[in-house]
Design goal:
mainly alpha, Methane Monooxygenase Hydroxylase, Chain G, domain 1
């Protein structure tokens, strides 16, 4: 019974993590992953079959979140590079305009 309560806590953290990732709140998602990690460890090496089924669902959600995080990181990197280039261009303009 203790594992059932624990897996439900893990499930709720996972769903909260999924929501945080969906809205791009990666800081919150990381915090929730950190909070969830010791709960997963507490399940032990041989959880019951019903808990294993829920763990597979959690794994699928984690895989989707990981892919979303990878894509978001690439997009943010591209935006950063574009912003840096725009900043350099504005600086060049100012140098010419004031020159």
């Amino acid at each position: 019974m203790q594992n059932v309560t624990l897996i439900e806590r893990i499930w709720q953290k996972t769903k909260d993590l999924e929501l945080a990732a969906a809205v791009g709140d990666w800081e919150r998602a990381a915090q929730l992953a950190d909070e969830r990690s010791p709960l997963l460890t507490a399940l032990g090496a041989q959880p019951p079959r019903d808990v294993m089924a829920r763990l597979r669902e959690i794994h699928d959600i984690d895989r989707r979140i990981f892919e979303n995080a990878r894509v978001a990181q690439q997009e943010l990197g591209a935006e950063y590079q574009a912003s840096m280039q725009a900043s350099r261009n504005a600086g060049r303009y100012l140098s010419v305009a004031l020159g």
